[in-house]
Amino acid sequence: MERFIDNLPPMDLMRSEKMTFVQLIIPVECAHRAVSYLGELGLLQFRDLNADKSPFQRTFVNQVKRCAEMSRKLRFFKDQISKASLLSSVRPVMQQDIELEELEIQLVEHENELIEMNSNSEKLRQSYNELLEFKIVLQKAGSFLVSSGSHAVSERELEENIYSNDVYVETASLLEQELRPERSDQSGLRFISGIICKSKVLRFERMLFRATRGNMFFNQAPADEEIVDPISSETVEKTVFVVYFSGEQAKTKILKICEAFGANFYPVPEDITKQRQITREVSSRLAELEATLDAGIRHRNKALASISIHLAKWIGMVRREKAVYDTLNMLNFDVTKKCLVGEAWCPIIAKAQIQAALQRATFDSSSQVGIIFHAMDAVESPPTYFRTNKFTSAFQEIVDAYGVARYQEANPAIYTVITFPFLFAVMFGDWGHGICLLLGSLVLIARESKLGTQKLGSFMEMLYGGRYVLLLMSVFSIYCGLIYNEFFSVPYHIFGGSAYKCRDTTCSDAYTAGLVKYQDPYPFGVDPSWRGSRTELPFLNSLKMKMSILFGVTQMNLGIILSYFNARFFSSSLDIRYQFVPQMIFLNSLFGYLSLLIIIKWCTGSQADLYHIILLLLAIIAVPWMLFPKPFILKRLHTERFQGRTYGILGTSEMDLEVEPDSARQHHEDFNFSEVFVHQMIHSIEFVLGAVSNTASYLRLWALSLAHSELSTVFYEKVLLFAWGYDNIVIRFVGLAVFTFATAFILLMMESLSAFLHALRLHWVEFQNKFYYGDGYKFRPFSFAALTEDED
């Protein structure tokens, strides 16, 4: 048997790639090029040899700062292009490669040019806004001064506010004097006109009223034009105001309040002829400024367009350079300061590619000394690396979300590819709903080249990443739906006629009075005649409950078998004899025998004793078998090792405590028998109790399948058929809309998410806890392809 297993070909994804720990000694003159070539290759994970140093104490900190500054400039260009509503060029641009220093000079020039243009544009816009506000104030305030209707209102307001105050009794008829310009100097009636943000008008008026104790008249009118803020480039609604007052003290208060509220005030002459003359002058200057602003915007957009052509390439170049210097900062200088020394992990299969890249870097740098690349021994455990593709990566991510596999332990993802979508389909079995999921997954797969280059939202990104998971889930849902014979909860005679018929040819209540079998069973899946019969629920409950037990026991046995292959791979005979064997005996003596009885009853219809006394005794014996031998054997082996009796066989599987999953490498003084025994006792109790609870947990397959089926039936019979019973097109349309909404959002979205989470739990807890430790760490090589915007 062992020879047969050894002769089996290796299975992809079953074990992580074999890793080796290497040391690189790189001459300074070719270090940058070597690291760049390694980044393009993406197969080397560097160790940080300067972890005790802060980022500012590292060798290439100045180069990193330069790259960070260039990244800031590029982000500034990107923001400016976005504000100008210009699209970045996506077409390939033929441009010669430039050096980092030359790019840095270009970026400084472009930034200074843009800053100067923005500053000039802001000044021009500020001048334009002031003139535009002046023009609006002239128009509105002038209308206040010459409007007869406004005079009457003003007279009443002034009588209430000013004449009622004893201090101002002698200044009677202020409005009449204000209407006669030649007497305005004698009367002392004055006004201030200006403009303020519309959102501040009410507070502004209230503050003026309180400051002058009501001895003022406030008039306002909305500005007809919106003014653009030169800083934020947003349009602001403003309101023109005119404040009438008397006295120098009131003027000082009003001016301070205007300044506090950010109001701009402009002088408006009382003479209508002067107003018109000033308005004409302001309009001509506005036209000139508008033409200048348009020319400046065109020039600025032209400069931004020339930058946007190369922006993507520049961002990628700076990002790569920064990543290279960040990696160089993880290396150490040797004592001669002529070489950089680095340590890294790499897959053994990639050593030839890495050496070729290093040789190419030496040649391209014209270095007189080659790069030394050799393997070393490492104390720490290697990282875990699985070579995945776009199909298997999503399933590997499902497993890694629980925990990254320990180095070279059995990978559950290879079985999850099939078992995960299948268990989902057992709970979601309906070939109508499965077709809907299939269409959605095919759309994602057909557009994957387009979607892969776009920035998606969190939900769409999750769907896109799991498109192949969704594809398999939909295919298995169709398969299970055909077995359940459910199409939106409706059964169909797809594979021939039913095996049952009425008791006689005239019966009309066959679904309540019962059916009689008259031919061979329905060839595939559940007979459609069960739908609506008196025994539908008892039959389907029995079928799905027993099926759930069978699937659960099978998957748990698979997990225990994988623990055997783990123990065999790591040459741990203790785990085979004192974990695998008693676990298989315990589980199958109880639940394996139960599953066998289910199958026998399905095939023959006969019944047997639920439990056999021998199997019960074996299950009882298996518990101390798991608990006691292993801790005592580990204690004896540890004692013999340090007494010098077995120094000659330290490398054997029995003596290498490092490869024992339940015991890390221990020194003589660190070995604690009570701790090992308690750990083994916890592990044994957990398995015994888990064998019962995990088997019961698989009954969720039955529960969710039943719930999905009954919910589909309710929506079909109580919504769609109920609405179709009315001879009214509106009621039918409403019923169809409610049925479609319930199917799409409740059954296809909420139910699918529920089934997905339950299938996830069955894999993480019930299946993987039988063999999977998941305490490794992922292989994260230095790769330009893995760089994201966060690296900036």
UniProtKB/TrEMBL annotation:
GO terms for cellular component: vacuolar proton-transporting V-type ATPase, V0 domain. One of its GO terms (biological process) is vacuolar acidification. The keyword Transcription regulation does not apply. The keyword Membrane applies. Its main location: membrane. It is a multi-pass membrane protein. Essential component of the vacuolar proton pump (V-ATPase), a multimeric enzyme that catalyzes the translocation of protons across the membranes. Required for assembly and activity of the V-ATPase. The chain crosses the membrane at residues 422-445, 466-484, 547-565, 585-604, 610-628, 729-750. It is found in: Membrane. Residues 93-127 form a coiled coil. This is V-type proton ATPase subunit a. Keywords: Coiled coil, Hydrogen ion transport, Ion transport, Membrane, Transmembrane, Transmembrane helix, Transport. GO terms for molecular function: ATPase binding; proton-transporting ATPase activity, rotational mechanism. Belongs to the V-ATPase 116 kDa subunit family. It comes from Morella rubra.
